[in-house]
Amino acid sequence: MFIESIELKNYRNIKELELKPHKKTSVLFGDNAQGKTNILESVYYCATGRSHRTNNDKELVNFKKDAAFIKIFVRDDYGRLDRIDITVRSNGKKGICINGLAVKRIGELLGTLNVVIFCPENLQLIKAGPGERRRFIDMEMCQIDKLYYYNLKQYYKVLKQRNNLLKNIKKPDDTLDIWDMQLAEYGADLIDMRNDFILKISDIAADVHAKITAGSEKLSLEYKPNTDKNHFYKKLVQNREKDIYYGNTSVGIHKDDMNFYINGVNVREYGSQGQQRTACLSTKMAEIELIKKEKDHYPVLLLDDVLSELDKKRQEYLINNIADVQTIVTSTGIDDNIKSICKDGSIFYVKDGMVEKQ
Ligand SMILES: Nc1ncnc2c1ncn2[C@@H]1O[C@H](COP(=O)(O)OP(=O)(O)O)[C@@H](O)[C@H]1O
Ligand SMILES: [Mg+2]
Question: Which atom of ligand 1 is nearest to the CA of 40?
């Protein structure tokens, strides 16, 4: 799939913008703090219904305005054109329309536009806390599988209710049992789905990693569920007294994690910095291929200041392997690498929230 146009109004520092990205590569270049990442963020928002930088939607609205508007036209591989309109108000409320029809749930938006975003922080995925890795799993899976999104949403709703209850009771009661049963039920499905997802992405990432390292390193990803799905309910029951004491749920998929191994050795604990970064790059590249496999089309790739973070060999690998993927890349300068990926593409200069095609 590819984006035909992006229109923004009052979006962060962008007053008004219309940008027609190239079918292959578009480079947004300009100094820092001009609005390059803001543009990528708006695209990401249309794919996922949320920002990759903030949970607070109010931030997306220009300081001096009441509402921000995003409009994106996206064409799929069969020629079908979809229009996504999103309005975010300064009170944090948002409205989403697909082809002029309002959608009530973000679940209905998911899949209209698929994106993979790659920023320098993603190279820290292995070193970062488990929350980042869960976020990686969730953001990828929600784009692929609406059922996953729905279950995850229900799970967190029940978790919130359970945690509220824990804070208000002195000993376990019937309501707690209802939440425990529901949590274990949604949780079990999510554990299965996460397991399946990590097996799939591990296979693809292993292939990519083998190519980047000329076959010398075998990468594998392993799911580390916090609890076995068959013991989830039992564990909730066992931990009730403790959970009431702390006012928090101590077991569940909200504590899951994943591990990365190279040649059987845990990369987080024993890998060199270079190995960690390469494993992160391989995993990111695998995200693109997995979407292609599952959805039968390539996502749009958003590369935010990431090329300069990679050495020459890895840059080349990345560039040579995204030929079929519409890519929007930001950069503070135009160097040889940017020129080489832009042989087939457009260059846009971004300054003060305005964009000029070069
Ligand atoms: N809600 C907002 N209203 C107005 N300007 C904003 C808002 N949010 C962020 N900005 C501005 O956007 C700019 C940052 O844009 P960004 O896209 O991150 O820059 P870069 O070009 O470095 O990627 C900063 O100047 C910041 O002050
Ligand atoms: Mg930026």
Answer: 17
